[in-house]
Automatic annotation (TrEMBL):
Protein name: Regulatory protein, luxR family
Record-annotated membrane-spanning stretches: 378-398
TPR repeat intervals: 228-261
Subcellular location: Cytoplasm
Cross-referenced SUPFAM superfamilies: C-terminal effector domain of the bipartite response regulators, TPR-like
Source organism of this protein record: Moheibacter sediminis
Keyword flag Cell inner membrane: no
Keyword entries, A-Z: Cytoplasm, Membrane, Repeat, TPR repeat, Transmembrane, Transmembrane helix
Length: 575
């Protein structure tokens, strides 16, 4: 591998031409083969529809087959309607699970999470433990918190072990290992970690223990796809430790298997990782060829999360070779794709969905209690009639007292459930309000990142040799990008519009308050931390504390009075 890289380095023009030709030739043959396979499978699916074999259709659609995303979505929605019509809860739950996996591949975390919740609800209702474990395992992949992810995966692992599902036990073991790996890398980067050095070292040990467990089980199962995923996980570790030779070897082994299995998304991921390694080794031309290959696959199958990563890697490569015009072009694509993914992957929305699911379950439980209460009343009334013929008036009185006691107890249970439901609805409202506030901050962060990048790139343009016409052309590109951010910047001002009366009062009664002071006060009212404000405003933490101190002086705040106390006091006076 190193000899080939050296030869290609000596003959860059020959290398570039040959690599591009070879890449497009292999990729076109690969896609043509997939197209033929897809048409054959579509014909088989239509035959299965005629026979009403929805479960068999789901088995065909659940894997990463060479179908267009629109085709898969249309068939899965059709299967959901069919299962509902037949009241086949088992098939309905499995279809929701496959639909969740589909949206996960499209990087739409919100829709994926919603479908996994549907699967989980149905699985608990029909007591399908295997389906429940699958929903928990797949749902955990959407969590950003590694500890929460590990806890959910361990719950799924216990169920898979109980039902003796070796295949999914391998998958969940690898996912737990990957989660420990992410936790290990994240804590190593932190300056003030919550874990000790020994605890962080244990994360890596536990990660490899999980991989070895999966590898041991797969020796008997001999599943080639899971073998490829293990190669990817090992390749990730070697890449992190900069052992590029072993990392490239493992990613190529995985890639070879995944191409044969027609697993497009995992194959795209391997190519992207190989491109990153080539960039880190300063093989820029090789990195660009690999990025073009992965970009074509990601665009064909709409792997939007991978497209964002690919665009980001393009920026790094083009910046390294001082091609700032290309870097700017991919920066635009990267920013647009990130905004799109933010809308599809907001964690607060997933929490809202979780709360709505809990409210729905409680409403169902309430209806169940009310239905049982009605049935019990009918039974008690019937018992009373029988008592009139058998036991007489004395038996009737005893039975009537018992009926009243039961009615009181059931009323208490219903009242408690209604109170709990009201609490959940209040919590849901708070989460929605929190989401609205944090969404504004997310846009502010995005604006700041874009402006920082533009400022940095503009300063670099000053050192670029070339004609005045070329520089003016690039300046025009910058102006277009800046003008395109106007609508997003308006969103950042909403924090003031939400409190128009408050800020109007401030301007009238505190003439020493500047626009910058109003912006700082708006962030403080939204409970944004000083560290986050410093990052948004692109100033140091020390400057934030100085600004806060000066703002307190301008507002004449007492030592014990907080900004929130001041805000509540002003709002109360205005009302």
């Amino acid at each position: 591998m190193r000899v080939c890289a050296f030869c290609l380095y000596i003959y860059p023009k020959m290398k570039t031409t040959f690599s591009i030709f070879l890449t497009f030739f292999l990729l076109s043959n690969f896609l043509l083969g997939q197209q033929n396979d897809a048409e054959l499978l579509k014909s088989k699916i239509e035959i299965l529809y005629k026979n009403g074999e929805i479960k068999a259709i789901n088995k065909v659609l659940k894997d990463d087959k060479p179908f267009e995303p629109e085709y898969i979505l249309e068939k899965l929605n059709r299967n959901i309607q069919y299962s509902k019509k037949k009241n086949d809860q088992s098939t309905l739950g499995m279809t929701y699970l496959i639909l969740g996996n589909f949206w996960h591949r499209q990087a739409n975390k919100i829709k994926a999470f919603e479908n996994y919740l549907q699967t989980e609800t149905i699985a608990r209702q029909i007591n399908d433990q295997k389906l429940l474990a699958n929903s928990l395992m797949n749902k955990s992949t959407l969590f950003d918190n590694s500890v929460e992810k590990i806890n959910t995966l361990q719950e799924a692992s216990e169920i898979f072990e109980a039902v003796k599902d070796s295949l999914n036990l391998i998958k969940v073991s690898m996912n737990i290992g990957a989660a420990y790996g992410v936790l290990y890398e994240a804590e190593n980067r932190m300056m003030d970690s919550n874990y000790s050095v020994n605890e962080i070292a244990q994360f890596k040990k536990k990660s490899f223990q999980c991989y070895k467990k999966a590898e041991q089980i797969n020796k008997h199962l001999k599943n080639t796809e899971l073998e490829a995923f293990l190669y990817i996980y090992y390749g990730e570790w070697y890449k992190y430790e900069k052992d590029y030779e072993n990392a490239i070897s493992y990613f190529n082994k995985a890639k070879e298997i995944l191409i044969n299995l027609k697993n497009s998304k995992a194959n795209t991921y391997c190519i992207l990782k190989l491109a990153q390694i080539a960039n880190e080794q300063t093989y820029y031309s090789q990195s660009l060829d690999l990025l073009k290959e992965s970009e074509m696959l990601a665009e064909k199958y709409q792997f939007n999360d991978y497209l964002a990563l690919i665009y980001d890697e393009y920026i790094k490569v083009y910046s390294s070779i001082n091609d700032y015009k290309s870097a700017l072009e991919f920066s635009k694509k990267h920013n647009l794709k990130n905004i799109e993914l933010t809308e599809q992957s907001n964690n607060d929305k997933m929490q809202i969905l979780e709360l709505e699911k809990n409210i729905t379950e409680n409403k169902l439980q309430l209806n169940k209690y009310e239905a049982n209460s009605k049935i019990n009343k009918i039974l008690i009334f019937s018992s009373l009639l029988i008592a009139l013929f058998i036991g007489g008036i004395s038996y009737l009185i005893i039975k009537n007292k018992k009926r009243k006691i039961d009615s009181i107890e059931k009323s208490q249970i219903i009242t408690e459930i209604k109170l709990k439901n009201q609490q959940l609805e209040d919590e849901l409202l708070k989460e929605k309000i929190k989401f609205s506030q944090e969404h504004l901050i997310s846009f502010a962060n995005q604006i700041q990142k874009i402006e920082n990048f533009l400022d940095e790139t503009k300063s670099k343009f000053k050192n670029i040799p070339g004609s005045r016409e070329e520089i003016n052309s690039l300046k025009m590109s910058f102006s277009e990008l800046l003008n395109g951010q106007t609508q997003i910047k308006q969103i950042n001002s909403l924090t003031s519009e939400l409190n128009q009366d408050f800020f109007f009062y401030i301007r009238q009664n505190y003439p020493g308050i500047s626009k910058g002071d109003e912006q700082l006060l708006a962030y403080i009212i939204l409970n944004v931390s000083s560290k986050e404000i410093s990052r948004i405003l692109n100033i140091s933490d020390k400057s934030i504390y100085i600004k806060r101190y000066r703002l307190r002086k301008k507002l004449n705040l007492e030592n014990e009075e907080t900004f929130d106390d001041f805000y509540q006091r002003i709002i109360s006076n205005l009302n």
